[in-house]
Design brief:
Blueprint: H1 4-14, H2 41-59, H3 63-66, E1 69-72, H4 76-84, E2 90-93, H5 101-104, H6 107-114, E3 118-122, E4 139-143, H7 144-151, H8 166-173, E5 193-197, E6 202-206, E7 212-218, E8 221-226, H9 250-255, E9 265-269, E10 274-277, E11 282-287, E12 291-296
Parallel strand pairs: 1-2
Antiparallel strand pairs: 2-10, 3-4, 5-12, 6-11, 7-10, 7-12, 8-9, 8-11
């Protein structure tokens, strides 16, 4: 919905919204003390799920409240007010229209610019269903130009440079950073994390412990998202991952029948698009072409939550 931020602002101003009481600041610590007497854990979980279902059902009554919006040239304050603070996804267009990377980052350009510098990538993914759970086991190294030649052969999901490799690859990818510039409306100046891979790379269904901004630079990616309110349907078996793995796989859905009830958001990101995924939102990502994406977590506003995540 291009220009959706203007419509939201105009609607709020039209009803005179402003000057409202602000809530008292949250002062609790990351682990609040448990009350002396508690309901059974199953009852607590069922009531939490009930509240989330009711809230999701109410949002669905209004397209403006529930739709995945597309906004062009979204100002930072509008992004904070309407999306970042409420934890609502949005596709942002136009914010990186001046990046040289949008036209330069072809496979040939990338290979020539980075050259023989050694990089780290995730390899051998086709042979292991738990390739995301066991990332360290899949670390591989090779010259970047050799990596580009390898994925040109069409290895699909088997070889992929991901955000997990970003710290190791920072020096090798430094020559590319002159082709991008800060997005100061939303982010602090720290560098983002690059994902480079062929058509067919896949990140299975999971949620993140931080807010994320996905910046599509080359190629297209399909992202399927599910709100946190539907977690009860997604068989959250380990850490932040779903046993469903892939919502587009009929066999996985047959093995996990609750997931058939999921109502998801589907978006295809083209070069120049950015997608804000709030903390806790489930998502899976599939490359439709050779793709380069940058992800960022260095927002101008607090990006907290991972410190308090209940392990187990």
């Amino acid at each position: 919905m291009a220009g959706g931020n203007d419509k939201l602002d105009a609607a709020l101003k039209a009803i005179g919204l402003g000057g409202l009481d602000t809530p008292r600041p949250y002062t609790g610590g990351p682990r609040a003390a448990a009350p002396a007497a508690q309901l059974p854990e199953a009852t607590v979980a069922a009531r939490r799920d009930w509240i989330m279902q009711v809230q999701e059902r109410q949002r669905s009554l209004s397209m403006n409240a529930s739709a995945l919006m597309r906004c062009r040239d979204l100002p930072g304050q509008a992004f904070l007010d309407h999306f970042y603070a409420p934890g609502r996804p949005v596709v942002i267009e136009g914010a990186i229209a001046d990046w040289p990377a949008l036209t330069r980052w072809t496979p040939d350009y990338l290979a020539k610019t980075v050259g023989t510098a050694e990089i780290e990538y995730q390899g051998g993914r086709n042979e292991a269903a738990d390739f995301e759970l066991a990332k360290d086991r899949h670390k591989r190294r090779m010259a970047f130009d050799a990596f580009m030649a390898m994925i040109a052969a069409g290895l699909g999901n088997d070889a992929y440079i991901t955000a997990y490799n970003s710290a190791t690859n920072a020096a090798a990818f430094a020559p590319l950073m002159t082709d991008v510039s800060p997005i100061s409306e939303y982010l602090t100046p720290e560098p983002g994390m690059l994902w480079v891979g062929p058509e067919g790379t896949f990140t299975p269904l999971h949620f993140d412990l931080t807010n994320n901004l996905l910046i599509q630079i080359a190629g297209r990616k399909h992202v399927r998202m599910v709100p946190p309110s539907q977690t009860r349907l997604l068989y959250n078996h380990r850490h932040v991952f779903s046993a469903v793995h892939d919502l587009d796989d009929p066999a996985n859905l047959a093995a996990h029948p609750l997931a058939k009830q999921v109502a998801s958001y589907d978006v295809t990101l083209s070069p120049g698009d950015m997608l804000y995924i709030p903390i806790g939102w489930w998502h899976q990502v599939r490359s439709l072409d050779f793709s380069v994406m940058m992800t960022c977590t260095n927002f101008r506003w607090p990006n907290l939550g991972h410190e308090e995540f209940p392990e187990g």
